[in-house]
Amino acid sequence: MKKQNGLAKQFMGMIVLAALESVLLLTVSQVVLAKGLRFWFSRTEVQQHATQKQVQELQSYVTEHHLASTDVKELTDWSHKRRYTLLELYRGQTMIYSSFAPKDGMISFLPQNGTSDQNPGVLVDKTGVYDWLPCYTLTFADGEVSAMLYYNGFNTYYGTGCEILLSLCILWWFPGFFLLNSRKIVRYVVQLSEEIQAMEGGDLDHPITIRGSDEVTTLASCLDSMRVTLRQQQEEEAQAAAKVKNLITEMSHDLRTPLTTLLLYTEILQYHKYETPEQADNYLNKIDAKARQIKQLSDNLFEYALVTRDTVAVLDPPAHFSTVFEEPLTEMVETLQQRGFACALELGEEDVLLLVSGQYVRRILDNITSNLVKYADPCSDILVRFVQEEDRAGLCFKNRVLPVPASSESTKVGLPSIETMMEKMQGICRIEQPEGIFRMTLLFQTVKE
After folding, report:
1. What whole-number distance in Å separates Cα of residue 148 and Cα of residue 151?
2. How much is the pTM?
3. pLDDT tens figures, 19-50
């Protein structure tokens, strides 16, 4: 049996695979982004243009908010919004602000004659330290100051780019890879949906596609089994309908002949077209015979309708062979002997347990008795013997048939009724008709003691 690979396991694998694919794409995208930004910002004019743009934005910010060089909080707010920007302000050789310094960039605010001994590390020679940075002049509310501004464009754009890439990875790449990996299952489900719609439309010949080893496969297998069962039911119903149609046609013919004869004889009597009272009595006897023949036809038809109406036969508890057949066989033999037939019974000593419906068994033997009276040759013995095949046992009836049937009309209902009742008891009815011989074998289910 093929090991089942459940949907939960498959989807977990798809999630892991989609995550790995997304992380790989994110890593490759970050490497490409880093190389592109390094190449772009390695150009001097690009870096200068980006720095000048930051200086212009700072000047606009100072002018808009009427800032003085001592407004440390506002300057720090502006710097913190630009994580990769270093800003230092100088008045002469004195550093009055640095975004890199602690306490919100506050260095010192000295009078013009302050000295480095009074405030160490404040008076600096900026020409030696930042000679590679251009110096810009900014206009504050309290005068002009010199500004040293270093803008790391690579880190700024790389950080923003990584955030965008991470958002794409979570919102688009991961779901996209997951859907891409699950497209096989989705296509299979869509295919099953189309095949189910075809089944709804009555197409039961097209098989349901069975692929894989998961829960969807199990569902598809069950659907295909249901399709096969429905098709078998349709075929059985069609066969039953055809059988009923043929039966109606045959019964119509069988009824028409005796009815026509019956009407003819009644017309003779009604209009006194007979010559002697004995002739009238003869016609009455013929009318009686035809009426009984019609009654037999209707009884057989009713029997067949009664059997085919029952969808399920209620089987009796397991009973021994002798218990099931002793009484009905005795009645059958007595009836046949009264009609001039000789019976030979070979029942053996086996007394197996059978699963049967006692009511159906009596009906079957009654039908067999009726057929034997009509068609069996009284000059030959009727053989009834016990038979057993594997897990089944029953009776075999064998007789020689008359060259010309005693009755001119046959209902052809008795044998189908017997076959139907045997099927409902899950038994077997086997009919063989070699030259001049009729053999019927009835096999019932057996139960081990």
Report:
1. 10
2. 0.47
3. 999 999 999 999 999 999 889 888 888 888 88
Task: Supply the pLDDT for residue 3.
Answer: 55
Residue 356 belongs to a domain with what CATH number? 3.30.565.10
Look-up of token digits 């970050």: 30
Structural domain count, the chain: 2
How many other β-carbons are positioned within 10 Å of the β-carbon of residue 41?
19
Written in H, E and C, the secondary structure of 112-162 is: CCCCCCCCCCCECCHHHHCCCCCEEEEEECCEEEEEEEEECHHHHHHHHHH
- Sequence-distant (6+) residues with CB within 8 A of 76 are 99, 104, 105
Identify which has the larger pLDDT, 259 or 140. 140
Give, for 34, the enclosing helix (H) or strand (E).
helix 7-41
User: Do 173 and 318 fall within a single domain?
Assistant: no
Q: Which of 152, 181, 210 is the last residue of a domain?
A: 181
- Fill in the amino acid letter for 279: Q
Looking at 158, 181, 204, the residue that finishes a domain is 181
What residues make up the domain containing 112?
1-181
CA distances from 139 to 123, 148, 167, 292, 352 (A): 21, 14, 40, 132, 119
- Give yes or no: residues 176 and 317 share one domain: no
**Tens-place pLDDT, residues 202-250:** 888 888 888 878 888 888 889 989 999 988 888 888 887 787 777 677 6
Q: With DSSP H G I counted as helix, E B as strand and the rest as coil, what are the percentages for the chain, rounded to 5? A: 55, 15, 25
Cα distance between residue 25 and residue 239, in whole Å:
64
pLDDT tens profile 402-418: 875 544 455 556 788 88
Q: Which amino acid is at 374?
A: K
